[in-house]
Design goal:
It is a single chain. Helix content is about 30%, strand content about 20%. It is of the alpha/beta class and about 230 residues long. It has an 8-stranded parallel beta sheet with strand order 1-8-7-6-5-4-3-2. Strand 3, helix 3 and strand 4 form a beta-alpha-beta unit.
Length: about 230
């Protein structure tokens, strides 16, 4: 992965057809996705269960861009190696998921992946201030994690604060939750460069009719870039 601050759209496969992940990934990448976002949920840290490293390993051959694995699980550390071996390019852990996030970020990098740290809406930007030199990505949750399709929570002040804290470090700011052409400009103007989109990316399309995927991605990207 090379670093740049251009707007990147990361469709979440949580909104894809679970029975057809490989073809869905092929289709959404062909329609302009920059990254593929994989939401891993454990029914403990968040009130939902999705999938684990076996699914990640199965879909990895279909991902030609970046596999962005978001661990909404606790504990995190026992599973880092499994997700790294499954082909994750980025592994993101929540600062709220355990008492030793510094150690977790070290372990993610030691496993050969880029290290991300996520912040729930109620967690302030300052929670990652002393982690930035170990971090490649900060994920700002703009919904409470656990389910797709939720209403956007305005975290632009937090994003601006993070953008200032990061300075010239090569750290992405990712937004996860409620991203669409209306909300994308708000977070892009505040300093975010990676926009996770679930239902807003996959809405109206299918493997047999992927053109709406491209329309959706272009609309989000144009709205975000228009705010810069």
């Amino acid at each position: 992965m090379t670093f740049d601050r251009s707007i990147k759209i990361a469709p979440s496969i949580l909104a894809a057809d679970f029975a057809n992940f490989g073809a869905e990934i092929d289709a959404i990448e062909a329609q302009g996705a920059d990254w593929i976002h994989v939401d891993v949920m454990d029914g403990h840290f968040v009130p939902n269960i999705s999938f684990g490293p076996t699914t990640c390993a199965a879909i990895r051959p279909h991902i030609k861009t970046v596999m962005d694995v978001h661990l909404m699980i606790a504990p995190v550390d026992p599973y880092i190696d499994a997700f790294a071996q499954a082909g994750a390019d980025i592994i993101t852990a929540h600062v709220e998921a355990g008492p030793h996030i510094h150690r977790t970020l070290q372990a993610i990098r030691a496993a050969g992946c880029k290290a991300g740290v996520a912040l729930n809406p109620g967690t302030p930007a300052e929670a990652v201030e002393h982690l930035l030199d170990l971090t490649d990505l900060v994920c700002v949750m703009t919904v409470n994690p656990g389910f797709g399709g939720q209403k956007f929570i305005d975290m632009t002040d937090k994003v601006r604060k993070l953008r200032s804290m990061i300075g010239d470090r090569e750290i992405h700011i990712e937004i996860d939750g409620g991203v669409d052409p209306t909300t994308a400009p708000l977070v892009a103007a505040a300093g975010a460069d990676v926009l996770v989109a679930g239902s807003a990316a996959f809405r109206g399309g299918s493997v047999s009719n992927p053109a709406p995927y491209g329309d959706n991605i272009r609309a989000i990207r144009a709205a975000a870039e228009g705010a810069l």
